[in-house]
């Protein structure tokens, strides 16, 4: 998740600092927490997911954003940077800067040992408050394993998992398929 937190900031102060900062930070309940860097494999998986998603969404009214796009969960006040965010339809932003997304359709997080518990627990609890969010994908780094949580019409979340390189997950929220072989292409750290 993050490193040492700084306390007592308003959302406005956070945004003013963040927009000038050389490094990304997360904000929640007055605390600003610097985000740790990502491994080579983490970055490669993110790039593979963005490439696969973008190619399938080409010509459709959807946009894929990398981890440099800040996201705000309005109902909880969390500002964070998901690894990948996809918006179907018109993106909505917090202000004219258009650097804080409000309406993701799908969010992807690549799990790291230091962030896995947060990504599965507290962060997903925040994300579930986004009315626009229809899918949440968690991708392991050390082995081929992807979890897809899909919001159901009754607001429950249905889990589907895939754990072989020959598997493909369908993401109905963006009408795309995620091939594990493509997601893990050139990722040498996974146990096969």
Describe the structure.
The protein contains 5 helices and 14 strands. With 192 residues, it is an alpha+beta fold. The protein folds into 2 domains: 37 residues; 146 residues, tt1808, chain A (Alpha-Beta Complex), CATH 3.90.1570.10. The strands form 4 sheets. The protein has a 6-stranded mixed sheet. A 3-stranded antiparallel sheet has the order 1-3-2, covered by helices on one side. A hairpin with a 4-residue loop joins strand 13 and strand 14. The chain is globular and about 50 Å long.
Please outline what is shown here:
The protein is an alpha+beta fold and 192 residues long. The protein has five helices and 14 strands.
Q: Which features characterize this protein?
A:
5 helices; 192 residues; globular; 3-stranded antiparallel sheet
> Low-confidence stretches at least 5 residues in length (pLDDT < 50)?
none
Give the quaternary arrangement of the chains.
Answer: single chain
| Total number of beta strands | 14
Characterize the biggest β-sheet.
6 strands, mixed
- Derived from helix and strand composition plus strand pairing, the structural class reads alpha+beta
Mean pLDDT: 94
Number of helices: 5
Radius of gyration: 16 Å
Structural domain tally: 2
Q: What fraction of residues sit in β-strands?
A: 25-35%
């Amino acid at each position: 998740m993050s490193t040492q937190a700084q306390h007592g900031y308003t959302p406005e102060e956070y945004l003013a600092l963040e927009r000038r900062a050389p490094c990304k930070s997360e904000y929640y309940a007055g605390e600003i927490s610097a985000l740790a860097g990502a491994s080579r494999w983490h970055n490669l998986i993110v790039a593979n997911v963005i490439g696969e998603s973008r190619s399938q969404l080409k010509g459709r009214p959807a946009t894929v954003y990398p981890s440099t796009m800040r996201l705000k969960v309005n109902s909880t006040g969390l500002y964070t940077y998901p690894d990948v965010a996809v918006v179907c339809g018109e993106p909505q932003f917090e202000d004219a800067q258009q650097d804080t997304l409000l309406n993701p359709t799908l969010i992807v997080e690549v799990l790291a040992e230091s962030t896995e518990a947060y990504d599965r627990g507290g962060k997903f609890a925040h994300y579930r408050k986004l009315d626009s969010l229809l899918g949440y994908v968690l991708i392991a780094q050390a082995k081929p394993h992807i979890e897809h949580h899909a919001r159901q019409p009754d607001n429950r979340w249905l889990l589907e998992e895939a754990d072989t390189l020959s598997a493909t997950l369908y993401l109905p929220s963006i009408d795309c398929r995620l091939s594990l072989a493509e997601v893990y292409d050139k990722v040498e750290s996974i146990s096969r």
